[in-house]
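Structure in, sequence out. Go:
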């Protein structure tokens, strides 16, 4: 069995009722998500060039007992997307919405996170240091999917439904055009997407943490706590939300026709004079969902530059 299939076999062995052993979710000083778990694992020295699968396998075996819900029903993406994510592991799940297919992308970052007291073996010019940690850095995205690439039953890649290939971003009253490359800084575009909605829709600053980040050349949805039930909830919200966002940047008829909107999304989307809108009921539903998330900081977190998410039930 090759290393990729071994990693996948570990995930497939997760019992459906297994629960995470994690605590609160935080943002660090550069606003990256992480969660704490009730144990410690050792991250071995990782090549500065790439996290290879022989190094990755024992890491996955160590962490899987703490986050089985995050791994459940996912599979290792065989080709890292984007290719620049050389120190991440990418796990994906394909989800069928009412009209659109989505990829749930769960990415784990195992580079050294700066906890100098936790170093067990120093790094050098070829390797990052080995360290013990109870902290897990990750990204969790719902991505509207256009076509999947398969090989022997495995997903080796996918093509997102792009909302545009280039965009005009409003900066101090002037529009600047950017080409969309892998290293494109998406913060301004993410903020522009959030401005399609009233700002009281969100319970947190979208400058600090956008829930609709521009990623993979499209609008995505950040599933902060990607347990199975939450992913299902977010797909239900994001599918009509994405159709609305798409219609603000391109002709929505490229991805859906009016009859399908009326049949499948009449509770969320409205059509008038060739334009697509959000119903009052759906707007309230979005406000209730995003309004559950608040930031909290005590003195210790301020010193560290952290923010904690308080999530109302």
């Amino acid at each position: 069995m090759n290393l990729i299939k071994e990693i996948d076999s570990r995930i497939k062995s997760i019992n459906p009722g297994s629960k995470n052993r994690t605590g609160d979710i935080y943002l660090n000083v550069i606003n990256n998500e992480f969660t704490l778990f009730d144990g410690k694992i050792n991250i071995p020295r990782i090549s500065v060039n790439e996290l290879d699968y022989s190094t990755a396998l024992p890491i996955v075996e160590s962490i899987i007992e703490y986050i089985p819900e995050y791994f459940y029903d996912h599979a290792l993406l065989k080709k890292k997307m984007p290719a620049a994510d050389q120190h991440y592991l990418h796990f994906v799940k394909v989800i069928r919405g009412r009209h659109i297919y989505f990829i749930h992308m769960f990415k784990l970052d195992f580079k050294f996170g700066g906890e100098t007291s936790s170093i067990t073996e120093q790094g050098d010019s070829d390797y990052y240091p080995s360290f013990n940690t109870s902290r897990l850095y990750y990204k969790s995205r719902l991505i509207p999917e256009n076509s999947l690439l398969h090989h022997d039953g495995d997903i080796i890649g996918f093509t997102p439904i792009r909302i545009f290939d280039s965009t005009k971003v409003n900066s101090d009253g002037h529009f600047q055009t950017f080409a969309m490359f892998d290293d494109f800084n998406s913060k301004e575009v993410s903020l522009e997407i959030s401005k399609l909605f009233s700002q009281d829709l969100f319970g947190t600053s979208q400058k600090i943490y956008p829930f609709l980040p521009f990623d993979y050349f499209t609008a995505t949805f950040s599933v902060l706590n990607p347990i199975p039930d939450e992913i299902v909830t977010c797909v239900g919200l994001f599918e009509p939300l994405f159709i609305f966002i798409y219609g603000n940047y391109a002709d929505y008829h490229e991805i859906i026709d009016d009859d399908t909107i009326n049949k499948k999304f009449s509770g969320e989307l409205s059509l008038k004079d060739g334009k697509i809108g959000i119903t009052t009921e759906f707007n309230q539903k979005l406000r209730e969902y995003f309004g559950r998330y608040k930031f909290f900081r005590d003195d210790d977190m301020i010193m560290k530059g952290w923010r904690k998410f308080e999530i109302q039930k």
